[in-house]
């Protein structure tokens, strides 16, 4: 990981120097701008020895160049007699350099992936370890390669650990084999994926790993207390963790609503020609029923509203479902557990296409403009599902439901009802404008490449 950061730092600095040489700045101005560039990138945390995902790196790049542009305009341009021209050149330079930086980030990871991948051993072989493996495999940008999982069940040195072992995609080893694997693969990082570890066992593990590896990372059991907004504080020598959950200031609401209005207008503009296309496609398939259907959903603060969607099922879908459940106990059980059917025969051919491309919820931009929904938010749940939401209900309904959100971008039809609730609870506790932007980008990617989970 250190190598890739050094490579990127060197390449990006060389590109910045080359661009500064091309632009018509004097020598003093070029030196100042280069110093500002280096300072702004380092101050936001770029090129550090830590694991980042692609969206996190994009955020750092954006913040770094935003800080650079602000400082450059403030300290350089306004002091020049030809301030307007200087501002134009600096803005153009910043844009080109940022684009080059994003390209370097992308292609450096592709070119140097094998040489710069960090080999990791995970302590734990249960559900959390499998989730960690899924995340690392889905995010190649993190340059993390799990070489082995350590099973501590029945280990005499670490008694009391009884994880339900899940089949993993890397070898499952005992602690006695740790040194062998760490040496063979040059492991310098260990991830502890046993959230239920007691403090004494965790301290014992840290003592064992001290001197063997450079980095130890721990996935804690947050119990809905820790969020990504949590921070470690030094309270006069006491280690204190400060956390906030689901807190949106008045200006957060204002910004989010402003984005919703502009996004809703843009969505409705796209919706108009899409209606014509869907109508033509439906008629071509012999379906002359209504394009839209409305359904009561749970809105903010539990208030019900009518949501607009493209009709993707047969017209009498609810009656067909009741009949199917009455005739087939397996279908009833599947629906009662997951609140959906994996291969739902009620879906029309046109509806399958709309779901694959994540277009079926486009009419909800009308709800966004009406203020009943947001672009990004929890899933709009059915009123009959309220009783099954349990302790999640109050947190989830404190936010306006979204056209898209965590559920739609993290598996959609491949996740069960409980997992959907967990994802929406996660969104409530970790909300930020950047999270909204990330989910929006992922939704657009699903629309472009198609959503496999909808198939």
UniProtKB/TrEMBL annotation:
Residues 256-447 form the Bacterial sugar transferase domain. It holds the Pfam family Bac_transf. The chain crosses the membrane at residues 7-25, 31-48, 60-78, 84-105, 258-278. It is a multi-pass membrane protein. Keywords: Membrane, Transferase, Transmembrane, Transmembrane helix. One of its GO terms (molecular function) is phosphotransferase activity, for other substituted phosphate groups. InterPro entries: Bact_transf, EPS_sugar_tfrase. It is found in: Membrane. GO terms for cellular component: membrane. Belongs to the bacterial sugar transferase family. This is Bacterial sugar transferase domain-containing protein. The lineage of its organism: Bacteria, Bacillati, Bacillota, Erysipelotrichia, Erysipelotrichales.
